[in-house]
Amino acid sequence: MNTTTHYPAATVKERVERHTLSVLVDNEPGVLARVIGLFSGRGYNIDSLTVSETEHEKHLSRITIVTTGTPMVIEQIKNQLDRLVPVHRVVDLTVRGEALERELAMVKVAGAGDKRVEALRLASAFGARTLDATLNSFVFELTGTTEETERFIRLMSDVGLVEVSRTGIVAISRGAEGM
């Protein structure tokens, strides 16, 4: 008996994989909406999304998308992205090899006494930078992998976590070859 998941054509026996896609697009109004529409229109989820203009002279932006799906779904996503008119190139950084991935987080922590000291100690251990300090709170900046960021946030929960703001994943392939 095949039990289906929320991914089209996926059965229990098919593995769901996490992929990081880098998409080079024209930097013009509506492009991001079209890319996101491709995902939402087909019921695919975006786990992380970052976008910024990277080549000002050419008016090109780079969109980094982290998504999950069966191998067939990931191929469908890449093929459909590749067919969008404002898309110049789609690179699956997961398939290409070990990519460098980082995320920026700002973490607000409030507390006094031992909790305040512990928050500072944890921030130092993780290499977090103090952006703001008051007598009863801190805002820390942390850059690292998603796993490091998650671990830092979990630990800060025990010492007075108030608020978290995260950028999402940015990624680039290793080696001399570009996108």
Question: Would you mind describing this structure in some detail?
Answer:
The chain has 179 residues and is of the alpha+beta class. It folds into two domains: 80 residues, ACT domain (Alpha-Beta Plaits, 2-Layer Sandwich); 75 residues, Alpha-Beta Plaits. It has five helices and eight strands, in the order E-H-E-E-H-E-H-E-H-E-E-H-E. The strands form two sheets. The protein has a four-stranded antiparallel beta sheet. A hairpin with a 4-residue loop joins strand 2 and strand 3. The N and C termini lie far apart (43 Å).
Task: Tell me the layout of helices and strands.
Blueprint (H helix, E strand, L loop, with lengths): L16 E10 L4 H12 L3 E10 L4 E10 L1 H13 L3 E6 H4 L2 E12 L3 H13 L2 E5 L3 E8 L1 H12 L3 E13 L6
Antiparallel strand pairs: 1-3, 1-4, 2-3, 5-7, 5-8, 6-7
Helix pairs in contact: 4-5
